[in-house]
Amino acid sequence: MGFPDQIVRTVDLAHPPAKVWAAITTAEGLASWFGNTAEIDLRPGGDMRMTWNEGFAADMRVERVEEPTVFGYTWPINGLPDDDPRRTYVEFRLEPTGAGTRLTVVESGFAQLPEAAHKEAFEGNIGGWKSELGELVEYLDAA
């Protein structure tokens, strides 16, 4: 039996693509809705680091930057040891709409995991994206 490999979430935002792009690709934007602190070298191969007040930190790698429509990075898989080389790939796609921006987030790479690790990482990130995208909406609406 195969496991689901990707999580896909789409949200319609009442903000122009440039504002959404800044929220997902700048340290200030990311630290305002996704983590508590962020660092980003916005170029393919650039380093990205996020920390959360709960003590969690993630070292990421920027993989794709096509301003203002596509931003992608790889990051560690929750539940695996810190030195495990496996990563998932997260891609944000922005599409202008009449009222703002349609943002689609796709995280893939879960099928590489064994059953127990897959369940923890996949289910955890499903809930995580629901929460984080809600925070993105709140951040954009307040800004």
Automatic annotation (TrEMBL):
It comes from Nocardia coubleae. SUPFAM superfamilies: Bet v1-like (SSF55961). It comes from the Bacteria. Residues 15-140 form the Activator of Hsp90 ATPase homologue 1/2-like C-terminal domain. InterPro entries: ASHA1/2-like_C, START-like_dom_sf. Pfam families: AHSA1. This is ATPase. The lineage of its organism: Bacteria, Bacillati, Actinomycetota, Actinomycetes, Mycobacteriales. Belongs to the AHA1 family.
